[in-house]
Amino acid sequence: MIIPTIIAGGSGSRLWPVSRSLYPKQFLALQSEKLSMLQQTLMRIKDLDCQLPITICSEEHRFIVAEQLNQINQLGSIILEPAGRNTAPAIALAAHSVAKNDPLLLVLPADHLIQEPEKFIEAINKAIPLANSGEMVTFGVVPQHAHTGYGYIKQGSAIEQGFTVETFVEKPDKTTAQQYLESGNYYWNSGIFLFKASKYISELKKYRPDINNACSQALVDSSIDSDKDFIRINKQIFLDCPSESIDYAVMESTSNAVVVPLDAGWSDVGSWSALWDVSEKDDQGNATYGDTIQIDSKDCFIRSESRLVATIGLENMAVIETKDAVLVAHQDKVQDVKAIVAKLKEASRSEHILHREVYRPWGKYESIDNGTRYQVKHIMVKPGEKLSLQMHHHRAEHWIVVSGTAKVTNGDKTFLVTENESTYIPVGTVHALENPGKVPLEMIEVQSGSYLKEDDIVRFEDRYGRL
Q: What CATH number was assigned to the domain covering residues 357-461?
């Protein structure tokens, strides 16, 4: 029995401005028009005989994960981390949650790209007998060039279907990476693993009992949310757990590490230049997405989300446009995008946190316009969903229904508002919005008042547990 174990944490800051901390790259459709990277991670192993997945994610991403997995009928267990503690604790939570049945855990980062999934399946099938016999399998990507952004795995002696691991090595400089490539004995470290749950637990007990104990105890003192099958672990116990990668915690110490070569068009899509590497290109080497025009431009990655982007005379550049931000960078410098995100944090700006279009468990909203004492939003509420019963201290709201039907609670009254009708919510009035219909509810909300940020909200009832 194989259980995919999906690591879906991380903020994806190197793919800013498309990736934001509240909607990072694993939830984006960066190459597919239909499937997010999380969804692609599971769909590429659909031909394997697997159980429903265990997905480990942050508390703030839980509804995104649940919705995306439900869309592809892969809604298994979702374990919520109160804070990121790297991969060793995340996998420990998964292993302990299924220890009774002792399945094979296929550990998959949710934000990787594999262009040839059939070869990936072949590599997994080669690894299954090794994992069943007690080996801890890691998949080593056959390097295509001397990459300095990845860790490497040096192969040891040959075994059936793979090699023992001689050593794991850190990200090398250019000269060392070239030597690794020329030797033919090194692989890129993919961060993909296959092993028995019991084997991981036993090795973790041996080398990092502190991590094992913290995760085991946090899971014992866990609860399952009533609205969704989220497993909410003990926050304080887990916050005291050391942060460590599986490589440092287990794989570099165990005597059972083996590597199975993987040559399937793998990429961790860790930068815009990495996405350019794996994208289709025109005759001038340009990879483009959205509404773009290029004149005398070569080897560029150009992405437009909301308007026409035109370039003239650019070479080896990345131009990324979203509704609220534009990034222009030389492809040799795109690894430094994190510095932009750091500056946004220092300035207490919101562009690293969320987009103008913000997803919520009930639907989404988009900020259309704002000024000193007003803000205009486009709101979409999914059929059957309801916003919390709430109140604002500093703002009034005008709601105009564009399509669908709204069930409105406004003080002590509850009534329906239909297309081309509106209602007014005074400051300090308890109110709620619900879509009782079968089609999405679309409406315009005009906020006015002295303070318009999202933290001016008092919730009295909420079906999503956000009190």
A: 2.60.120.10
